[in-house]
Amino acid sequence: MKDNNQSPKLDRMKYLVELLNEASRAYYAQDTEIMSNLEYDTLYDELLSLEQETGVVFANSPTAKVGYEVVDELPKEAHPSPMLSLDKTKSREELREWLQGKIGVLSWKLDGLTIVLTYQDGKLVKALTRGNGEVGEIVTGNAKTFVNLPMTIPFQGELVLRGEAVISYSDFEKINARIEDVDAKYKNPRNLCSGSVRQLDAKVAAGRSIRFYAFSMETAEQSAFATRSDQMDFLTAQGFEVVEHFRVTEDTIWDCMDEFARKIETYDIPSDGLVLTYDDIAYGISLGRTAKFPRHSIAFKWADEKKETILKEIEWSASRTGLINPVAIFDPVELEGTTVSRASVHNVSILEGLRLGIGDRITVYKANMIIPQIAENLTGSGTVEIPAHCPVCGGDTQIKQVSDVKSLYCINEECPAKKIKAFTLFVSRNAMNMEGLSEATLEKFIELGYLHEFADLFRLDRYKEQIVSLEGFGEKSYHNLIESVEQARNTTLPRLVYALGIGGIGVANAKMLCKHFHHDFGAMRSADVEELSAIEGVGEVIATTFVEYMKHPANQDVMDHLLEEVNIEIPVVEEGSQTLDGMNFVITGSLVHFENRDQLKEQIEQKGGKVTGSVTSKTTCLINNDVTSSSSKNKKAKELGVPIFSEEDFLEKYLN
Q1: Residue 199, pLDDT above cutoff 60
Q2: Within a domain: 577
Q3: What is the set of active-site residues?
Q4: What pTM was computed for the model?
């Protein structure tokens, strides 16, 4: 079933998709041209012709215009048969013996989120997460944003396949690089991928560079395959990227495993092991299953290289939020080809669980051959003391427990560690956007007494002579710095609010709050918890944190002094444009005239209206194209006498 002529065409299509998308980004986002209109049109026509010829259309193709889907909640659906986990081994000998003289297929065990895809007559109709193995969540709208997933395939009939949604390490680093606040950076690509795929707004998933790698077929009408290898070839011909795999025997499996082990050191896709499957499909099925595992496949988990060493000290590292994390420092050891001498212990709960003490004999390893971790404490003295004082400022510390996890915090609001991180956020790109102020420079300025509060950044010209004479500075560096500071004086309220570093207030929340209060900072500062909690997306926890920040006398001084230094630009509202002022709307279901709900919400807000998430007695109308549905929002609207408008009716009445 494999089309030997298909692969070069698919490679050409992928190249054209990437090139055309790059040209579009340059033209529309960067106001530059990397190719002429004629060249673009020629390449576009070539791509379109190849799509028609192969029957494959990739999700990120410029010919495929897919709107971002937004749902109120992810619907659930039972799997036709349970999605069992695999039995595992860490023994190379056991893995070879498992083959029993048969031919197997050895592949990566990718570390992402397992997805089941269903295609009908060449079209993607459903994507379902593994869920609990019995019931999964429908994420079709999000799957359509996977950058390498075919939306259309040549096969006509029903095709059900499984694969792994993943975010590569390089894409993960790019995503984190866009986040200025160190504490807000994502922890690992696996969790980010899982959270992104399960978002209610597909626009979020679209910005995460999620990829899909197929690893098995469940059904394919009118098609029969004798081997797993044949299935993989068929899926490749349909336009899918399949997990890297090799046919192995008892004689070749160890060499193949060695090759995988060499690759994982630089492999860009998260993997936590290998999967071995019988190539003969009928034989594998005939083996049946246990209560927990199918017998046709087995997972191999890397036997982590462990080394024994001596714990020398516990270093306590402070952050902007006051969290103080323990880091184990030990005698250097060679692990997976590199020298390591430190490993995060993460929190107090793990520290206590390991019963660590200075001088203890410990074993260390690299989780997934990458991240240094403590495996075991062979001594278990438990003598490490939790510091009663912050290692940075000497202030009091406090252990707080959240969801059964104990962590250590510095409770001194004037802690320099907090101050450095706070200033770092304040000058970051999404905040006040001051260039030339690295964390190291800020630390130096704080240490020299130039910076005590945010407003001092706008008074650095008082220290011109001192700054110019500092190592690494000079007249040019100083003038560039002051020019950037002066440009930052003219700012917007959302930037300022985000720059303050209030817990839970990111860029999006800052914009939302400013819109709610019509860019009136005074009204925002005097709001109470009840009013803030009523704003969609805020909630009581964030509202309480916000109010406590605003009421704190020291913070009030910081804000007052800051307002003396900056000019806040208030968005200009055209006279007579606020036709929806005082009206509240709720949007639910899919839309026809807008790519997503955010577009409609933006139009409503531009005219002074407000969009909330739930129907109340104050709701002007509920916008739902399915006016007769029995959804909870429709029921609530009917109970309260709130009118339900289709998109067409709403546009005609309110936006025309």
Answers
A1: yes
A2: no
A3: 109
A4: 0.50
